[in-house]
Design goal:
The structure holds three protein chains of three kinds. By secondary structure, chain A is an alpha/beta fold. Chain A is built from 19 helices and twelve strands. In chain A, a hairpin with a 2-residue loop joins β7 (228-229) and β8. By secondary structure, chain B is mostly helical. Chain B has helices at 2-35, 52-58, 61-92, 100-108, 115-125, 132-139, 153-181, 185-193, 198-209, 211-225, 230-233, 240-243, 246-256, 260-290, and strands spanning 38-39, 47-48. Classes of the chains: A alpha/beta, B mainly alpha, C mainly alpha.
């Protein structure tokens, strides 16, 4: 009899401890995910279920959705990928007509500014997004804020940019392949020009330090005054130095003259005929790493200025009937847990500073050998200047970049380049008052 | 009664054209006219701004450049296109040439390849650092460094013109051959008997007789040539200022800059330009006919 | 002397032929090499990278799907063009009604309107009535093909004798049945020529599908080729495979039926 009672008790205790064990293992995780501030929403999230439609231009989102669904089995995410340059227009028209609009959609950093003040984008601040972004690099938070400071879009990764370099060529022509020493050597344009000359001389013109002079535009743009403020165009005089630098590089044949993102540019990365390229963190797919043949051959050093290029901004359609689900989806990508998984599975560099700090000494990517790349990237990402986004900011930089690259290739003076740029602004934004 | 009923049938047979034309052509054309007086970005509602789009257009250097580019490309394509087509048509019209059908088919073939594909092929062939043309010229020792074709104001447009010529010369050759075949053999025989040589026959008999076909080809090529879009739009590796045609500018303004109102005004301007050119060429042709 | 001139003539013909073929050859060869070779070497012989390039292309853009889409769009719009052009041409040619000639003049005049005049309004209209991302705006307008009517009317005038129509009419044939079973078959040769012309036109159309279709999986071939161009900016291997796939089936079809296609084009030109 006692035996039976002991057995029953034992079973009861076992079951009870199992149950509580489960509970205690589950609970903190859930409240973690949901954030403390939105407690009633956490209660709701247990019951949240349904299907949302997600639009993106980016194939990897399918993987992201899988990851989300494995943690949130009641929410089905239907991802539709639209690669190609018509995506922006598609989003635009769908937001205007409201027909077949997705619940969640991605906007590329290049044009997020054109959408940010649109009422069709849900106010994420009202849903508690500020709390989620507390530990984000400041420039990434600024990228998703509208003119009244409300958060309208959230990214899941940072896109810090630096000089990627071919280790073998760096060692041969610059004497070192150590990222810290190279960061030091690349810290000013004067030093870069001098190094470029050395490299050309040493290699008899076969090897170049830089692929294309226009790297200087991406690197310098963020530290310049925005071109358009209060509907007026102003050109920061500091651009003169950048143009002179670029002209100096091209006129002495110091760059390899390979247009960025062109195939020859991609090939030069692999064969080492160019030593360093200004590249954002997500550009690894450009390296031909078939069967791991490029592993350990690339390093990352800091550019003269901390910069970034591209970011996937995720927004919610304001009239979506599934805003709760959509927000749950966005929230998921701001968690440490996901950003670590994303880093390890896809090599995407995180947006959250805590993720850098917690993995800074342990994370390596086989492409970069034993370099602790998060360390380099942390230095960059924490210093990238935050700037407000509007419809002009990024586009005016791009227009200037085109005018400058074409102008220097054609041998124009600074003033001719500025005038060509003014023409471009006048054409794209006739409402803007020119400075001349 | 009988005739009235028949008339009704006749009207109902032609009605589909007019209904569909009204809905899918006429209405959009009139609606575009309205939009050309508005500012509309695709996200908000169109707002009426009067003639502002048109006054902007008159001072828009980009638009004038696009007209110039279009004409430049058109001339680069039409001159070699027509002369080559005519020459080949005359050669291949001679029964003595062996393999006529084979050559005819080969020359025509580029015409049925999608223009987008042709644009891509040519822009890849003439790429600065990677194009086959530069590599061939280097291998043959004709040049000693890659030529940046796309950055040259002359070559970039010439190459697009040649791509279009490449696409169309075979088609025009077929037109000319059809024209040549309608010339009766007796005229040639008479000329031979009179002792005319090949060149005299070509210039004194053949050319004047197929002049109507040449004029037809020219006029259709003006209307088509002023609307070129597919081929140059594929030249992503050229500075767009050099190769932007009128319709590319229309597309860019509407669908990449989202100035739909202004784009509508551009569409109307293109229409007027095409109308003017067509009228001029008709006038010239008529004047020729009279003389 | 004559022989010598003939040799020069053939050399010229062969040079032009080579100019027609070299771009295709270069494309074919390049599609079988990896990007490093494409960018750095002059390629004359095939390599062994075709399947790799093909796999990378297909990961993002299913060009075969583009083929299917183009075929669907081109066949349905050609069918509509043929039937309704013949019907309207028959109406203009064999019926008497008030205003017939001025209506026909109107049809001919619409041929002068450039295609992109109403494009923005068309786009807005389609967006407003929810036809964006559907084939309807690409197919239905083919009913109103002014060139088709003009071309078919000339054929109708000559190839369809009035006596036959009158005879059939006396037999008690209904007007539409008379058209379907008697007139249409008599127009077959002309329909074949017009069919080729409008099929090529529909197959090549680029601007309309570019702005109307949203889903990548719905796009016809030209739009897909263009998107390969923008998406694989640095991957020429994949680009070359893409354009190769867009050309190969056309080469096959053309080599089987080149004579027929060229005759149709010539007829279209002479009558047009």
């Amino acid at each position: 009899m006692t035996k039976k009672i002991t057995l029953a008790l034992a079973i009861f205790v076992l079951i009870a401890s199992l149950l509580t064990g489960c509970k205690s293992a589950n609970e903190p995780q859930q409240s973690n995910q949901a954030g403390d501030q939105t407690n009633d929403q956490t209660g709701g999230s247990k019951e949240l279920s349904g299907e949302i439609v997600m639009w993106t231009y980016f194939d990897q989102v399918k993987w992201q959705a899988e990851s989300f669904m494995s943690k949130n089995p009641n929410i089905k995410v239907n991802v539709q990928v639209f690669p190609g340059d018509q995506y922006e227009n598609k989003i635009r028209m769908v937001l205007q007509s409201g027909q077949n609009a997705p619940d969640v959609f991605d906007l590329e950093e290049a044009y997020v500014g054109k959408f940010i003040d649109n009422p069709a984008l849900a106010d994420l601040s009202a849903m508690g997004a500020d709390k989620l972004l507390e530990d984000y690099a400041p420039y990434l938070v600024a990228l998703g804020k509208d003119k009244s400071g409300k958060i309208k879009a959230v990214t899941d990764n940072g896109s810090p940019g630096g000089f990627w370099y071919n280790r073998k060529s760096a060692k041969e022509y610059l004497g070192t392949d150590d990222p810290d020493k190279l960061s030091e050597m690349f810290s000013s344009w004067d030093s870069i020009i001098k190094l470029s000359q050395d490299v050309v001389q040493k290699s008899g013109g076969k090897v170049h330090l830089l692929a294309h002079f226009s790297d200087a535009i991406k690197i310098e743009a963020l530290s310049k005054k925005p071109f358009i403020e209060d509907s007026k165009l102003t050109i920061d005089p500091a651009w003169n130095d950048v143009l002179d630098t670029m002209r100096g590089i091209r006129s002495k044949n110091l760059d390899a003259k390979l247009d960025p993102w062109s195939p020859a540019w991609g090939a030069a990365i692999n064969d080492g005929s160019v030593i360093a390229w200004a590249m954002p963190s997500w550009a690894g797919f450009f390296i031909d790493n078939k069967d791991g043949k490029a592993n350990g051959t690339i390093g990352i050093a800091k550019a003269p200025k901390p910069y970034f290029e591209g970011a996937t901004m995720r927004a919610i359609y304001d009239k979506s009937p599934n805003k709760d689900l959509a927000f749950e989806f966005i929230k998921y990508f701001t968690t440490d847990e996901y950003q670590v998984e994303n880093l390890k599975e896809t090599g995407n560099i995180p947006a959250k500073l805590s993720v850098y700090k917690n993995n800074i000494d342990t994370y390596t990517d086989p492409l970069f050998g034993d370099q602790k790349i998060l360390k380099t990237y942390y230095d960059i990402i924490s210093q990238v200047p935050a700037h407000p986004v509007d419809r002009y900011y990024r586009d005016s930089i791009n227009l200037f970049g085109t005018a400058a690259s074409e102008g220097i290739t054609k041998g124009q003076t600074n003033e001719q380049i500025f005038n060509a740029f003014r023409e471009k602004i006048k054409n794209a934004y006739p409402e803007i008052e020119l400075d001349k | 009664m009988y005739n009235k009923k028949r008339a009704l049938y006749g009207i109902s047979f032609i009605a589909p054209f007019f209904i569909v034309f009204a809905v899918f052509n006429l209405y959009p054309i009139l609606y575009s006219l309205y939009l050309s007086f508005t500012d509309w970005d695709g996200m908000n509602l169109p707002s009426f701004i009067g003639l502002r789009n048109y006054s902007r257009l008159i001072t828009d250097t980009y638009f004038y450049t696009s007209i110039f580019n279009t004409l430049f490309i058109w001339i680069c394509s039409i001159i070699p296109q027509i002369s080559l087509a005519l020459f080949l048509a005359i050669i291949l019209n001679q029964k003595a040439i062996k393999g006529r059908d084979f050559f005819r088919a080969l020359y025509f073939f580029p015409n049925i390849v999608t223009p987008v594909t042709i644009g891509v092929i040519f822009s890849l062939l003439f790429d600065w650092q990677t194009g086959t043309v530069n590599k061939m010229l280097l291998a043959l020792g004709i040049i000693d460094g890659n030529i940046n074709w796309m950055y040259s104001p002359f070559f970039s447009r010439l190459i697009i013109g040649l791509a279009i010529c490449w696409q169309w010369f075979g088609y025009n050759m077929l037109m000319f051959m059809a024209g040549l075949q309608s010339i009766s053999q007796e005229i040639y025989e008479a000329a031979y008997i009179d002792g005319a040589n090949q060149r005299q026959i070509a210039f004194k008999i053949t050319l004047p007789l197929i002049k109507p076909v040449i004029i037809f080809v020219l006029i259709t090529s003006i209307i088509g040539g002023l609307q070129i879009f597919d081929v140059p739009a594929m030249f992503r590796n050229a500075p767009q200022d050099l190769i932007r045609t009128m319709v590319m500018y229309l597309y860019e303004t509407g669908f990449t800059r989202y100035h739909f109102g202004y784009a509508s005004a551009i569409a109307y301007a293109i229409f007027i330009i095409i109308a003017v050119f067509s009228l001029i060429s008709l006038k010239i042709t008529n004047a020729n006919k009279e003389s | 002397m004559k022989k010598f001139a003939n040799i020069i003539l053939y050399v010229f013909l062969i040079i032009i032929m080579l100019l027609c073929l070299i771009p295709f050859y270069s494309m074919l060869i390049s599609s079988t090499h990896d990007n490093t070779s494409i960018t750095t070497k002059l390629l004359v012989l095939p390599g062994n990278n075709f399947l790799d390039n093909y796999a990378r292309l297909m990961q993002t853009v299913n060009v075969w799907r583009g083929f299917l889409n183009s075929t669907i769009i081109a066949i349905s719009s050609t069918a509509l063009t043929l039937y309704f052009s013949a019907l309207a041409a028959y109406g203009f040619s064999k019926f008497q009604f008030y205003g017939r000639d001025s209506l026909f003049a109107f049809v001919v005049a619409t041929m002068m309107i450039p295609g992109q005049l109403g494009i923005i309004g068309f786009y807005k209209l389609m967006n407003d009535i929810g036809l964006i991302n559907s084939y309807i705006p690409l197919i239905i307008p083919s009913i109103a093909n002014a060139f088709g009517i003009f071309f078919m009317k000339q054929m109708c005038d000559t190839a369809v004798p009035n006596e036959i129509i009158e005879a059939s009419y006396v037999d008690g044939c209904g007007e539409l049945r008379l058209f379907n079973s008697i007139v249409l078959p008599m127009l077959l040769p002309a329909l074949a020529a017009l069919g080729i012309l409008s099929f090529i036109g529909a197959w090549n159309s680029f601007l309309m599908p570019l702005i109307i279709l949203i889903d990548n999986s719905l796009q016809p071939l030209p739009v897909m080729i263009a998107s390969v161009r923008t998406q694989f900016t640095a991957d020429y291997g994949a680009q070359y495979v893409g354009i190769l796939i867009s050309v190969i089936p056309i080469i096959i079809i053309f080599s089987i039926s080149s004579r027929w296609i060229m005759n149709s084009v010539s007829i279209g030109a002479v009558k047009g």
